[in-house]
Amino acid sequence: MQKYTVVVCDHIHEAGLEMLRSDEKINFIMAADEDKTKLLDIIEDADVAITRSSTDIDEKFIAHAKNMKAIVRAGVGVDNVDIQGCSKEGIIVMNVPTANTIAAVELTMAHMLSCMRMFPYSHNHLKQDRVWKREKWYGYELKGKKLGVIGFGNIGSRVAKRAKAFEMDIVAYDPYINPSKVTDYDMTYTKNLEDILACDIITIHTPKNKETLNMISSAEIAKMKDGVVLINCARGGLYNEEALYAGLKSGKIRFAGIDVFLKEPATEHPLLDLDNVTVSPHLGANTYESQYNIGVQAAANAISAAKGISYPHAMNLPIDESEIPPFVKPFLEMGQKIGFLESQLNKSQIISIKVSGQGEISKYVESLATFVAVGAMSQISDDTINYVNADFIAKEKGIKIESEALHDSSVYKNLITIKLTTAEGGTTTISATIFDDNVFRIVSIDGFDIEVALKGDMVVLKNRDVPGVIGNIGSILAKHSVNIADFSLARNDKKEALAVILVDSIVNDVTLKELLNIDACLSVQYARM
Predict the structure, then answer these.
(1) Interior CA angle at 17 toward 11 and 20, to 5°?
(2) Which end of the chain has the lower number of beta carbons within 10 A, N or C?
(3) Is the pTM value of this prediction over 0.85?
(4) Is the per-residue pLDDT at 382 higher than 60?
(5) Catalytic-residue membership of 269
(6) Which domains are present in the chain?
(7) Is 106 a residue of the active site?
């Protein structure tokens, strides 16, 4: 059995480490406490490395990572990763952008409330100074205030929804989203930043890049209303810190809640001298829940990348990300997973892969086809299949890759269909879509309308539609101590049924043979995602 080496370069949650230890195809190396020079020797034969901020993925690291398929940055920021250098060597760089979402959202709300009620200062006045002076601490309510949200992604949108529960009026600025993402929640969308500058409170939730660095500076602050409150729990430097200091000092900015600084640690920062600032030492991801999520997601991404199943949240995709809307990226990942799934359900020489798209995703089916090919071919080639060489290897192996844009689906906003054909004449066709919060969902398999989550170990059993089959399936799996996590069933007009069973453990060949021997059974297929 082929094994893949995953090196953990920095500490992650124990739950993530346990996932790596328990996968029989993963050779897990814990190197978080190793000297960084020694680490360079350890990674030479690694397939995937998991890092945090303590390990720089620089020229020296990349030079030693001779067999590296992917880097997983366990967190959001990739400031310590040379993405361009990785791309030159064919190394996919991934991050874990949503694991600490709720932690960052709730910290933003904490800063917002603290600024409006001056909570840290009243707390210190009583607890440290032992002064009970209620009349000194009159604050402001969130209700009825206008909140300007810059950046309406995973975090900004959730901040807005929580602020809406406080009965605030929300104005959102994000030129990279569909306005309906804002207006559907009875919030105001704007393409004019000055509409944000007119708000009572402003919170920013963008990445740090050339476009957003110093996005709010002296000129923007001058246009704000007197007594504005500013919040930054995203990235240091989005507010120009000199302009922020001057605005707070003059009273133009009544209060600011700051979790991030341009240079950290910021123990001597001038902002700390002001008495109208609430600060925290970059705690956006510092909850036990988020650390668990980061560790588990990083480990899952590393395992998927090592096995060639998919490269979730890849930062250096073979397409210009500025030319695609955010909704496309999850479809690319899902397409790759379906390709991987179909290659297991139809185990034979692949001769063609056809990818169809309905809805807005139909504009991106050519890029999608490349991702599907990576997933489908990952288990049939000794070569390392990636986004750069997938088309070349497909041609070399005589695999035809097609893509087509279809009319919009009457049922789903976006739908992709992938048809894999093998030399033995077998075909597997799967249609899938993505629900809210990026939930991948299969909605059809070989003409059977069925809803199945795209995850885990999966048994696909086709049978004549007669009584007793479900009971026999359950009995056989129970006999072999295989627990059923989910059971989905569909029927067609040919008096056939299809069962898709998600299970919690490996199903061995003996068990599969017993399932196939059920009188009404027509076929049994098994896949591990």
Answers:
(1) 135
(2) N
(3) no
(4) no
(5) no
(6) 1-98+286-307 (3.40.50.720), 101-279 (3.40.50.720), 328-451 (3.30.1330.90), 456-523 (3.30.70.260)
(7) no
